Amino acid sequence: TWQRKVNPQAAALFPANLSFDATDHGSVGLSVTFKTAGSQSLTATASGLTPFTLAEPIAAATASQLSFTSSAPTITAGVTSGTITVERQDAYGNPVAVAATDLSVTLSSTNSSSGKFFQTDGTTPLTAPKIVVGGSSLDFKYTDTRAGSPTLTAHATGLIDGTQQSTVTAAAAAALEMTGLVGDPAGTVQSVRVTAKDTYGNVATGYTGTVQFTSTDSQADVPADYTFTTGTAADNGVHPNFAVTLKTVGAQTLTAADMLTSMAAAAQVVSVTPAPASILELTGLAGATAGAPQSVTVTAKDAYGNTATAYTGTVHFTSTDAQAELPGDYTFTVGGGMDNGLHPFANGVKLKTAGTAASQSRSRPRAPPSSASPRQPRPCKPGWSRRRSPSSSRMPTAMESTSLAATST
Description:
This protein is an all-beta fold. The protein has no helices and 28 strands. It has strands spanning 2-3, 38-44, 52-58, 65-68, 74-76, 84-89, 103-104, 106-109, 116-118, 130-131, 137-143, 151-155, 162-165, 167-169, 175-179, 189-197, 210-215, 226-227, 238-245, 250-258, 266-272, 279-283, 293-301, 314-319, 330-331, 342-350, 362-363, 404-408.
């Protein structure tokens, strides 16, 4: 019976149990292949006989490959790994020493732009890696700034490449990044994404800070303070759907900042455009002598007080002064040199009935004309009479007023 007994050799090839018969005449030739270099032994035993052990020194076969013998490294972005070892081996994994001249080795990473190799001191770049004569291995360290699973490769002429997959995790969050905000019309609800990133631009999956939003738009609806979460179905450094509504026309900034740390805040600047017109504003009318021409301005505005530059409605004027001279109906225009939501009516209004005050009137577009009637004079005291010359230039008072309205038709 052939049996492994001393220095167990898992890779060895040898026969299973063997039974002798008369034709063997007590002798059988056998073939045994050892695969692990070093001192190996083979033992034969048979019932009732003294066991026999044969010890053989086994040398490595010809070198055929490079192999990583150290554990796959897991490192944080920007941090240097522990020592990594690449070995020159035969086909069975035995180390094979370099005999004649140093063996040049080329090291590479699939993160070619961010992965770096260093000598074992962890600071000196590994510029010409090699396995020296008499040695069979090369020691070095590795660092990377891009999170992921880069593959490290060791190459030498005439040998099979050695490969090993490493793991690089993100460093601590150093900055917030915001995307998604665009220059939509005022009042549009938008969704923005906020991402926590480390110094190297990796998503900081372990970020659990609280983010606060602010805007240069004093009317803006911004999200409430939010604390990031980690784990299954959690943020893990990215929250994609914060609702934001900007309402003031012009360049507006939305900022997201960590409430407790000095990490860099995120900001986006967009140009907000007006929403559709929802109201007309009339300005410029003042107390004046009856019959004096006055200039007024009509401005179309959206629900947030912005000039509605795209307004093309037709404006109609009415007044409680039955004698008033008013502008005719006017259709707003848009484009270069046009109204773009604002039209001045130069000397377009003459109020003639005394008591007409400087009142400003707002009317919603497409509302019916004002049906207000002139204020009636108060009764005179007993024994007194009220007299007014047709050419009276008496200034109006707050108690005696007439309104002017502009409505969209």
